[in-house]
Every structure is written in structure tokens, then in C-alpha cells.
């Protein structure tokens, strides 16, 4: 197993900032999380394990290989609000924008049709985004999420590759079945703790990978694919009604001129590329960090009572 970075968080990748806005008053059990790369655009790629979900902006990532905005995470019915707010926050750049916003369904605990997320909540998450330790569990976009029948939410972890590069993963974990949950490969049994009442396996997970290595878009896509192996280690299966969408971006070639921001970009651009002979260690890091991020989401989340009285219990960490 690869070693964790000093924070065991996506912010171990230099320059990355994470911000949360959390709403838990009235009928709201929801929020928004933003991930802000140190410089944009940067190379990126994405992968769909199962497609009952949404991750906006991926058509342009497929076409260009570029991530051009911060990444937002929220609930299913607030994707449009978060997307538009990111556009408004970057409008001063004077370019067209296709923001990346991912979602998972928090309707077990949150009044998801209440449209509680507003533009000012996105602005707050962007304004307060910082490096350093990342709050996890019932925060931001993960506030109302359920994971393997326990309270889920935001989780993050990092790993350092054999040759010294950092790989960080942040998940919004709202997926999985209690019966399939594994920790370090061992089935986790907690039959005495009530399930939250929704169909098991009906949730989703968004996974965001960041690395400081000089990866090209096709290599980022390969890293994004490996998130699914970390999900599987914890017992996730990409069920029929699950939305399992993963994106990886690399800061090693960031600030790439595109012509949309630069009036006269250079005719050619010098890039670095990790030799594919070394990419397997990045696969290992993604898998290990994803597994760690999901477990951290469970370990940090606290029991929550929903807007209608539904209770989702915290993961019983003492039983590990």
C-alpha cells in the first residue's frame, strides 16, 4: 500500500483549495463543496462507471482534454444553481465557461425539492476555499448523503507515489449496500443498526482525483477509471440506479494557453509527460486513496435526523 501525504487529503497536492457551505436549518440538509485547482486550465479526463447521475462539462473535457473551472459538488436538484453561480463568479474573465458540477441525491435527509442552495452559498464556498486540512463527513455537498446504509458525505485521502508525486482523492459518498461493505477486505456486519429506509444501492458517488504529476489528458482519464477499483474495494458495485462519475486532473502542466483567454497564444507549447512505464504506481495511489476517502467519509460523518424525522446512523467506528 502506498503512503499517505501529510494531510491525507486532496490538498496535499500543492495549491489545491477546498471550500464548503453547509445548510442544516429548517428542511435543509444539504450544501455545496468546491475544489479549486491552483491554475487553470489544466489537463483532465473523466470516466463513467454507471451513469445514473450528472457531471456537467464533460463533453468539453472529452473534446479538449482541459478542465477550465473550479469543480462544484452538490445535490441532484441544485446542479444548475451551482453551475450558474460558478459562471457568474468567473464572468469577469470575459470568456465562455462550461463548469464542472457533480451531484448525488440527498433526498433521504434533505428536502431536495426545496431548492435551498442559492448563488450566495456557492460564492461563500469559493470565497472560503483554502488549503490545509479538509472538513469531512456532514459538510458541504455531502451534508445529507448516505453511504453503505450509514451516514456518508465528503471524504478525502492522499497517497505519495514511489517516485515522489502526490495523488489526492475527494469523494462525495452516497452509494453502496450495507451487505457488501468491506473494510480492508473484511465484511463489516452491523445488523443491529437500522438501515435508513431507502432502496440499498440506489445512491451515487462522485470521485475527484488530483495529482501534481505532468499527465496528459489520456493519462488523466486512465487515473479516473481506477477510482472504480477503490469503490469496489469498499464493496461498491456501480448498481443499476447508481451514478458513479469520476474526474482526474493534473497540475503538472497547468496554465496551458488556449487562445480563449490569451489574445495571442504561442504557436507551440512545451509540455512534460509522465512516461507510461511509471503510471501503474499512480493507479495504485488512486485505488488506495479512493478506498481511504470513502472510509474517511464514513468515519467523520455523524448521525443525522432528516427534515421528515428519518434518522441515518453514523458508522460505528469503535467496531473496527
How would you describe what is shown here?
- The chain has 320 residues and is α+β, with helices and mostly antiparallel strands.
- It has a single domain (10-314), classed as 4-Layer Sandwich (L-amino peptidase D-ALA esterase/amidase), CATH 3.60.70.12.
- The protein has five helices and 16 strands.
- The chain has helices at residues 58-64, 79-90, 119-127, 217-233, 280-300; strands at 17-23, 30-36, 42-51, 66-67, 71-75, 100-104, 146-147, 150-151, 153-160, 166-174, 182-183, 186-187, 204-211, 243-250, 304-305, 311-312.
- The strands form five sheets. It has a six-stranded mixed sheet. It has a four-stranded mixed sheet with strand order 1-2-5-6. Strands 7-8 form a two-stranded antiparallel sheet.
- α2 packs across α3 and α4 packs across α5.
- The longest helix is centred in the last third of the chain and has 21 residues, at 280-300.
- It is globular and about 65 Å long.
